[in-house]
Recover the amino acids of this structure.
């Protein structure tokens, strides 16, 4: 059995982290080392942290996201695991985030600049700027009313022509649409 460590609960303030969903069975033999007021439980190991919780996303001063596995359960509580090296600094003023778009699943999300998936091409933004761009991209993905001004037979191609500059440039949505209408 792996030796447990106990970091200070304050050491997780102002962090960004992506947890991967795990089967609850991995907790066998581990003891709860911290329980939050909201009922989340934490289990620390030498490699990383397990968190068992019914809420993910923005947590106090941190942004912790859970990537679900393929197993769908009725349980509202989910177990996630993250390696210690996957906890990255977060604040409101630095340009720490970039946007990833998955055209196949029609989703958009943000990642931290220290993430191994950062290719150095996507524009880094503050969390506020990133949130604003993500809202614009989700509207482009989910709505069609904006497209009525364009003469285009393939909406997927048009979406990509607008979304790519939102991710890879500092152009505004209005600027991008205006250039496409010329």
């Amino acid at each position: 059995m792996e030796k447990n460590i106990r970091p200070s609960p304050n050491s997780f303030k102002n962090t960004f982290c992506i947890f991967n969903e795990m089967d609850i069975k991995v907790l066998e033999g581990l003891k709860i080392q911290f329980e939050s007021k909201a009922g989340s439980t934490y289990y620390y190991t030498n490699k990383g942290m397990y968190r068992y919780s019914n809420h993910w996303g923005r947590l106090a001063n941190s942004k912790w996201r859970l990537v679900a596995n393929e197993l769908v359960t009725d349980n509202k509580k989910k177990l996630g695991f993250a390696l210690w090296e996957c906890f990255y600094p977060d604040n409101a003023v630095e340009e720490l985030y970039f946007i990833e778009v998955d055209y196949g699943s029609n989703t958009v999300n943000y990642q931290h600049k220290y993430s191994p998936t950062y290719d150095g091409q996507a524009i880094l933004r503050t969390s506020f700027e990133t949130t604003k761009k993500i809202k614009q991209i989700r509207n482009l993905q989910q709505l069609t009313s904006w497209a009525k001004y364009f003469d285009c037979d393939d909406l997927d191609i048009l979406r990509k022509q607008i979304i790519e500059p939102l991710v890879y440039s500092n152009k505004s949505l209005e600027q991008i649409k205006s250039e496409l209408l010329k």
Q: What stands out?
A: The beta strands are 15-22, 34-35, 41-44, 48-53, 57-59, 62-67, 78-83, 88-89, 97-102, 107-112. The first strand starts at residue 15 and ends at 22.
